[in-house]
Design goal:
The structure holds two protein chains of two kinds. Chain A is an alpha/beta fold. Chain A is built from nine helices and ten strands. Chain B has helices at 5-17, 60-73, 88-91; strands at 22-31, 41-45, 50-52, 77-82, 98-105. Classes of the chains: A alpha/beta, B alpha+beta.
Amino acid sequence: MRLDLLAALNAERAARRAAVVVTELATGAQRLATAATLASDPLGPEIAAALAARRSGKAGEGSVFLAVDVPPPRMLVIGAVHISQALAPMARLAGFDLTILDPRTAFATPERFPEVPVIAEWPEEALPAYGLDPFTALVALTHDPKIDEPAIAAALRAECFYVGALGSRRTHAKRVERLAAAGLSQQAISRIHAPIGMDLGASSPAEIAVAVLAEVIRALRTGTAATAGAAA
Amino acid sequence: MDVTDSDVLAAAERWRREGRGVAIATVLETWGSAPRPVGSRLVIDADGNFLGSVSGGCVEGAVVSEAAEVIAAGAPRTLEFGVADETAWKVGLSCGGKIAVYVEPVD
């Protein structure tokens, strides 16, 4: 691979844009395909199909290899709490682009979350700039309806592939009433994973973080994100 | 800390800019049970340092030694590993799968 092509690919990745390295296997000749070049590429339709499926593989009757690079899934964690401190490094290792949001400035500090972007603002202020989308997981962990619920409502409206909220069944029942009163449909509300996390019998904050991450990965690989990726 | 494919490619660029000989190995095809999906990458430098994975550890050793030759020769090559290959047990794709790996220099 030419260094300039590698640098261009890394620039696309850094900007969270999809790109495909097209390699002619017989000669080793390569080009970088992006949304901007698809229309003029002789393999445009095949590249577009590979991008839509988010899947690398051979094309051009086996003469060409398409290496698909799509942006990593994001995870927005509401609450700079103890569980989040365990979840942040685990989720990053699993390939998620993770951000912590908590308006409580005593919690949302860089010291508690080294190497993780921390936004010390209310969800209503920060979410428009963050841009929730179907390739984002929303994990609400504050227990505080004033903080969690605006983010949960926004995530359901943005069709985030995963929306989970910490809290007992009783807490969640009250949350459901408030979200319904705020105008969300029962179908949307039913997408909330609550109590949060795969049932592992998790007890400590780190164990709960494993349970949450497992549930998010299951949603990513088998749920709406997989479907949205295939249909996009 | 992270070992996602984007970090692997970032490392490839950084290493090359530092003047090291660098090769990128990419899984082209898999048959049967293969531990890493098509498109997975491994980046190798001329000293045998590597980052990423093409097989979850099964054939990395063989790919790394081939990569040294690819860096020296300056031309890509395709490697195949699998149960049909007599070296399979030696390099250890013991899951019974088969993979093809494209190894190319960064130039």
